[in-house]
Each structure stands twice: as structure tokens, then as C-alpha cells.
Design brief:
With 363 residues, the chain is an alpha/beta fold. The protein contains 15 helices and 10 strands. Strand 7, helix 12 and strand 8 (252-256) form a beta-alpha-beta unit.
Length: 363
């Protein structure tokens, strides 16, 4: 089982500060993550002025801010994202970012040249963005927090439609009608290796997500239902859930991290600190090593112990030459330097070909 691709999710934990964003890149590099990911959005395009905060976004019960207020405090400019991308290049780590609108996605693809498109759980039903993601022709990671199988299936059909446009299987002017979506979905293996292009992340949209809400077995259900690669976007505390997800076949693992969990902001308290991220990546790397091979055999490190802790057959008392050997004549003791104790019953009933003194190997 290959090690999952580990995305260190910086998200909006920069709190609108370019300097902190650059520091987050450094932390991701030092932790050994495979990529670092941010979130690119225009607050006014993402949320209406009347949109309330989610419960996890509130700082207190009387927090009267709107989502628009919060998002404005977390925005970075395109120029700042270009600087982050340049810093990622310098540090040798892939830069990723979730584009929350089609123009932001195009900016990320066309100008910052992201290698992978990420669709957030909240945009699983945002059909225009799904089609636009497919039209890039890039691999896509789709988070599925709050979704059921039917919604995931519909989202994948819009993605397939976009990929079909990219490959020229469907005309660029064609509308994603129900018939066209089904056609694109069922033809996906003909026009593209869709199962390899798309990774569906199981996810629980709560920060932090409680253990009883994780439902990790659903990841395999997604894989069986849709035939795509699967992964896990982990909003729980610690690394246990991601370790389990890795053993269940997660190809991608995504985890939020921060410079300081005590900072104000919606995601800090449910994120890993720098030491936590290093331990998290180490734990996931260890999974592949620990799972090892499906072949059951004596490991090289065990070989030296085998003779020491296994038993062989000894004479429990003196045995005369020509005597018929009985159970009472034998005992099995360490070390395993003579005939294996597996053969105990094969020795019983045989004739001693020579005399044996008590404590000697028999057989």
C-alpha cells in the first residue's frame, strides 16, 4: 500500500497575513508534507452580506459578525498568493489552493499553475465550479463533507462533463443537461482515466470533528460505489483517524495546521501546531512501513531469535538402545537445536537406535 499524498492544509490560518502564510509554508516543508494548500476567494463573491456564521466560526455566543465580515479578514490578494507560490518554489514544495469561484480557479490554474484542483466540501453542489474544474484537465480532489452518496454521484457527473469538454468528447457549447451528464459519466473511461483523475475525500465538516462522527468506513463505500481514488480530509484531533484512513486505502490525506492553536480564527483550535504536524506526517509515513508485505514469513530481525525461543526434543530420562520410545521418555525444551518439537508425536513409538542419556537431543 503506497504512502498517502499528505496535504498540509494552511487554509486561512494565515489570518490575512502574508508573513504568516510564508511561515506556514516553511512549517509544512519542515514537517515533510507532500504539498501545502491555501484557500483563494473573493469574500464578496463567496458570501452574501446576510449569511450567518457557522457555529464553529463564532468566537462567542454573542458574536454578531456575518460570514462576509469573517471572510474579509481572511482574504489575501492575487499578488500575495503569487508571493506564496514563489516561496513554495524556493522551498521545494508544491503549492495548492482551493479556488472558491470560477475566476479564482482560473487564476490559480492559468497564473499560478497549480498541479491539482481542489473542490471544498461546501462547493460539492456548485455545478459551474465542478464543470470548470473538469475543463482544466487537471487532477481534481473533491471533498464530501455534509454529503450523501447521491450528492457525490451528481457532483462527479458534473466533473465528468467538464473533463469530457476538455477532451473534446462533448462540445464546449453543450449544456450539462441530465442526459449529457449521464452520457459523460458512463463514457468517462472512454474519454479519460477518470478514476485516476479524481480523488474523493471522505470528510466530516465540523471543527473539531468528534470520533463518533467520523464514520471512516464510508471511505470504502465511496470507492466501491464510484470506482475513484479515495482519501480523507481529517478535521478530528490528533493523527489516529488519518492513520486508520491510511490503512483503509486513503490515497490522499489532508490536515489543517497552524503556527499557533491559540490564535483567533475559525480553524486554529482544530489544527495541528508545528510539532503536531511533524508527528502527524511521521505517523502516516510509518503506516506503510508497518503494514509491510502481505507475505507471512520469518523476518530477518527474527531469525536470530528462532532457535533461542523455540523448542526441540530432549530425553526426559535415560533411554536404552533398542527401547520403544514413549511420551514419558521425552520432553520439549529450548533451544531449538535438534529435531523440531513439531515432530514430538513422530518420535513417540519409534525404536531408539542408540542409547540416550537424560537431557540429550532425541531424533
Amino acid at each position: 500500500m503506497p504512502t498517502p499524498f499528505v496535504i498540509a492544509e494552511a487554509g486561512v490560518n494565515h489570518n490575512g497575513s502574508l508573513d504568516r502564510a510564508l511561515e506556514l509554508v516553511d512549517i509544512a516543508v519542515e514537517a515533510g508534507a507532500d504539498a501545502v494548500k491555501f484557500q483563494t476567494f473573493s469574500a464578496s463573491d463567496l458570501a452574501d452580506a446576510q449569511a450567518d456564521l457557522a457555529e464553529y466560526q463564532r468566537t462567542s455566543s454573542d458574536d454578531s459578525r456575518t460570514q462576509l465580515d469573517l471572510l474579509r479578514s481572511l482574504e489575501l490578494t492575487h499578488e500575495e498568493f503569487a508571493a506564496i507560490r514563489a516561496h513554495c518554489n524556493e522551498r521545494g514544495i508544491p503549492f495548492l489552493s482551493t479556488g472558491f469561484d470560477v475566476p479564482e480557479l482560473r487564476f490559480l490554474v492559468d497564473e499560478l499553475e497549480i498541479p491539482i484542483v481542489k473542490i471544498a466540501s461546501g462547493d460539492l453542489t456548485f455545478a459551474p465550479l465542478l464543470v470548470a474544474a473538469g475543463e482544466t484537465g487537471l487532477p481534481t480532489i473533491l471533498s464530501t463533507g455534509m454529503a450523501d452518496l447521491d450528492e457525490i454521484g451528481r457532483a462527479l457527473r458534473f466533473l465528468a462533463f467538464g473533463y469530457a469538454r476538455f477532451d473534446g468528447v462533448i462540445d464546449a457549447a453543450a449544456r450539462p443537461t441530465a442526459e449529457a451528464l449521464e452520457s459523460a459519466w458512463h463514457a468517462r473511461n472512454d474519454h479519460r482515466e477518470f478514476a485516476q483523475a479524481v480523488t474523493v475525500l471522505h470528510c466530516t465538516t465540523q471543527y473539531p470533528a468528534s470520533p463518533e462522527s467520523l464514520n471512516l468506513r464510508a471511505m470504502r463505500t465511496i470507492a466501491e460505489e464510484f470506482g475513484t481514488r479515495v482519501g480523507y480530509s481529517d478535521h478530528s484531533l490528533g493523527s489516529t483517524a488519518s492513520v486508520i484512513a491510511t490503512t483503509l486505502g486513503a490515497a490522499v490525506i489532508e490536515k489543517h495546521f497552524t503556527t499557533d492553536r491559540s490564535l483567533p480564527g475559525p480553524d486554529h483550535s482544530a489544527s495541528l501546531d508545528p510539532d503536531g504536524l511533524r508527528a502527524f506526517v511521521r505517523d502516516l509515513r510509518d503506516v506503510e512501513v508497518m503494514l509491510g508485505s502481505p507475505v507471512k514469513e520469518c523476518q530477518p530481525v527474527e531469525a536470530g531469535n528462532r532457535d533461542v525461543v523455540r523448542r526441540s526434543i530432549f530425553a526426559a530420562r535415560d533411554i536404552a538402545e533398542g527401547a520403544t520410545i514413549t511420551e514419558a521418555d521425552l520432553v520439549c525444551r529450548r533451544p531449538a537445536q535438534g529435531r523440531t518439537a513439531f515432530d514430538f508425536w513422530e518420535v513417540v513409538g519409534t525404536t531408539a537406535t542408540r542409547p540416550h542419556r537424560a537431557g540429550e537431543h532425541v531424533g
